[in-house]
Amino acid sequence: MSTLFSPITLGAIQLPNRILMAPLTRCRADSDHVPTDLMVEYYTQRATAGLIIAEATMVMEGNSAFGGLEPGIYSQAQVVQWKKVTDAVHAKGGRIVLQLWHGGRACHPLLNQGAVPMAPSALAIRNEETHTPEGKKPYTVPRELRDDEIPGIIEGFRLAAANAKAAVFDGVEIHGANGYLLDEFLRDGSNKRTGPYGGPIENRARLLLEVTDAVISVWGADRVGVRISPLTSFNDMIDSDPIGLTSYVAAQLSDRGIAFLHLLRGDLYQIQQGDTETPARAAFKGALVSNLGYTVEEATSAIESGRVDAVAFGRHFISNPDLVERLQIGAPLAEPDPNTFYVPGAKGYTDYPALSAA
Hints:
alpha/beta; TIM Barrel; eight-stranded parallel barrel; 11 helices
């Protein structure tokens, strides 16, 4: 048996295999950001993943960045419906953690009753557009968060973590990647502020680490993961020293004893290139999860060599609810339809058949 299919423990979370389902925003919540019964079915279909990392979920009201149909975890109605998801996944023998997320400057006033998005600096996302009720629109210039507002952001993450615990998740992952709020603070291409949260990496990483400490206060370190993407240029992101950023953040998170570090290892746009796995492995003493473009052969090699401990798969979990079984027997993989990634309804969401039903 390949090590890809061997058990592993991430902190306090015991997994039967090392094939994780990466967080995939699919926009199937309702207009109040409450998870739907369709989402219950979707996640339950994929319960054989070593660990499901549920999609980016709003920690605070009024910070929508995905067409207004991404889920939240700030209201009681959301907690109740997310518990339907976790109960169903657990009934199938699965494990699931919730990704805690703030959209930062990727939010849009048309999705948030006119509210101007917030960010470390007043810099808009350039050369990209977002989906709004009025069609695709350019991103707007965010307002710079004041230092005295930052404790409220940290408290928002803490409350969201408590709500995720009430919804009986197995843990949480803090979203510090892909050009959203915490990542915007991390990288010097988007963080031009001065003071305690700007300038050197020790200051730029402060918010992520304070959020991590707040979430640990709810869950304990052994049920908290953090996702970072030092090379990713999505959402107009860049950093002058992604390797140094990786080393510093990984070392700080290692000192906190978190369950896992989830690394988006490259850049789909190929604007920035480099090896972030090696410095992450050197600095982080816990379980290292890597993601982005892995084949089963490369994932197996990466785990067997000790470069990483587990691999998260994204796109192929969309179209193969039984991805673990398919990889184990070498069955062909169905390709996902990008036209249905973010549209409402079952098509391209829960209608991909498992091998047993094909």
